[in-house]
Design a protein that fits this description.
mainly alpha
Length: 125
């Protein structure tokens, strides 16, 4: 049975999905004037950036784990897709549950840069 067409199809889907989160974050940052943003919008953008940052850290850590050579090309493409979705979900949970504090620091800095109201210390919690 020839799986080359399936591999090619899922490879394209995987590549598009992998670039989607970075593109949507970049579009959101480029297309939004945060000087008129509410506290919730600003905090949400900071949390999204932190989640993306944590996701990239997890992906970097995952690359250090030795991989087996036993799987076929079509299977490994599907596994990579689901592995990336799992890592993305873990990064979002990490940011929502405890975070690194990066979102809070970005939030405070953006408030100062845009001259918005003084920052409340419990804004992220």
């Amino acid at each position: 049975m020839d799986f080359s067409n399936v591999t090619s199809m899922y490879g394209d889907v995987y590549a598009n999905a992998a670039n989607q989160s970075a593109s949507s974050l970049q579009n959101k940052l480029n297309g939004t004037d945060y000087s008129k943003a509410t506290d919730d919008e600003l905090l949400n953008a900071c949390k999204q950036f932190e989640a993306y940052f944590v996701e990239q850290m997890y992906k970097g850590m995952w690359k250090t784990i030795p991989q087996s050579e036993e799987s076929s090309n079509s299977t490994s493409t599907l596994m990579d897709y689901y592995k990336d979705k799992m890592i993305q979900g873990m990064a979002e949970q990490t940011t929502e549950q405890s975070g690194l504090g990066l979102a809070q620091m970005l939030y405070e800095q953006m408030k100062r840069n845009y001259g918005l109201d003084t920052v409340e210390p419990d804004a992220v919690e």
